[in-house]
Design brief:
The structure holds two protein chains of two kinds. By secondary structure, chain A is mainly α. Chain A is built from 17 helices and two strands. Chain A has a single domain, classed as Up-down Bundle (Cytochrome Bc1 Complex, Chain C). The longest helix of chain A has 29 residues. By secondary structure, chain B is of the alpha+beta class. Chain B contains six helices and nine strands; from the N terminus they run ααααβββααββββββ. In chain B, a hairpin with a 4-residue loop joins strand 6 and strand 7. The longest helix of chain B is centred in the N-terminal third of the chain and has 26 residues. The chains are: A mainly alpha, B alpha+beta. Chains A and B meet through helix 7, helix 8 and helix 12 of A and loops of B.
Amino acid sequence: MSFPWSKEYKPSHPLMTWLDERLPLPRLVYNAVGGGYEVPRNLNYFWNFGFLAGLCLVIQIVSGVILAMHYGGDTSVAFNSTEHIMRDVNWGWMLRYGHANGAAAFFAVVYLHIFRGFYYGSYKAPREMIWLLGVVIFLLMMATAFMGYVLPWGQMSYWAAQVITGLFGAIPLIGEPLKEWLLGGFAPGNATLNRFFSLHFLLPFVILGVVILHIWSLHIPGSSNPTGVEVKSESDTVPFYPYYVGKDGWTIGLLMIVYSVFVFYMPNALGDPENYIPANPMQTPAHIVPEWYFWPFYAILRSFTQNFLIFDAKLLGVMAMFAAILVWFFLPWLDKSPVRSASYRPLYRKFFWVLVIDVLILGYLGKAPAEQPYVFVSQLATMYYFLHFLVIVPIVSSIERPDPLPFSITESVLGHDGAAKLAKD
Amino acid sequence: MAQEAATGAPLGTEGASESEGVRRRDFINIAAVSAAGVGGVAVIVPLVSQMWPSADVLAESSTEVDIAAVQPGQAIKAVFRKQPVFIRNLTPAEITAAQTVDNDPKQLAALRDSQTLAQRTKEGHESLLITMGICTHLGCIPQGAGTGEVKGEFGGYFCPCHGSHYDTAGRIRKGPAPKNLEVPEYEFSGTIVKIG
């Protein structure tokens, strides 16, 4: 946000003055991520993941555009061109491992970013739009990651395409025609692979566009902070540059170390070896599992095994899986507590951690085979997941007695605030 | 030009006497927007339609299989529309297992997708169960057609993806799948079966 004390962009060179009067792009950058953007001084490390997510998007776009120069989106060559990238293209192995593990890094960072939003109530007024756009980005990421996973046309690629498009077949009446329309055939084939390639190339740029809207809407109220108390005076903020650019830079280094360990020392640790077998429409792998970042949602999908009223089990599973994310859209209105940060909400905080454990359990179950006792446990975990959002959050937010909030960000950091004393007197 | 704009611009802001009733300009506005709308929709039609299966995909719509060598207790997998079809020659025990359910109205009604073995086979060829090898849940290929494969709790097919059990008539008995294994269109001519 532009506070009264925010610094104004001052071109230091006649050329920049000339540019500023014609196309004030440097001014835009200065006000968005430079010295002109005032940010709360008390942000902890959980506020770094937005910047890191942006970095991951850049890594994915750069490595992806290059990979597309060597890849063939045709079922007769897709698998072999992927191996060609791995074996023949100069540094091709690094680009592909970097892209595959880059997707995992992107999801890891975004999950931590979402965690931050949940814990510190970043979705609350006046920041609802930032949250809604964030959920949109997450949905786009899931679609993009899924279609990218199909491209190498290995066994898991093929059967992932079969299972995921099968989800749409569950919709009553229009399901089967819709599935054929999505696939361009009766089963995943050349038409499917080609369109997934085209969309996998397009969607990251759509994500980039929504990210810009996400940041734009963030800059209207400005960043939230761990206390959830709004900025009151100049002593509450520091300029984004150099303070948070420096801090983000340091965490970029940390992320790159972890990322490099995966890319260079264990590039296949997160992947499924089954995908190094070329796609075979006549043989289903014994155990179909998505990549780790989809496990919790996959567990919810599989937890429905009985028909209920007019809905069959398959449709219920599909609806629940989508609802598990769509319910996030309503979170700003389900959580009625005026206190943002869970640090000051003793009751909500307990339930929040139970939800985190519940999601981790769902993640474990999404990987497990579709047998007892896993199915029964995932039914319980799924039930709790929805109970949290639809019952626990609204009730807790209306009966809870929050802890006293600090007067200001400055007081929370320094233990005293001149303005607070003034207000008391 | 400037004069036209000056008289034409204040559309809704003219005096009350002039804004009442339909004017020539309203007609032009509605006609222009309508034409643009129809044109826009007309452009969307081919953009959406190109996503449907193309002519060459649709052309692969029938398959012929010789079933002379399929002995009771054996099953073969054929390919139809790039998808597997199970052709299974049922043993007397398997037929009995399916008919036990058929002949008990209570059990038959309790089926998720209630059908008898007779409804799922052709007259004169009751021992030949021909179904798509596609689980009706999310499209995996069930096990049970190959030798040594798991046949599930009901002796028919078992889908390993999400644990759907089918019986010896290919009917869904347990697990998340909503429907029985689909029976495609087919006809016999001698020992040849034409699917599709």
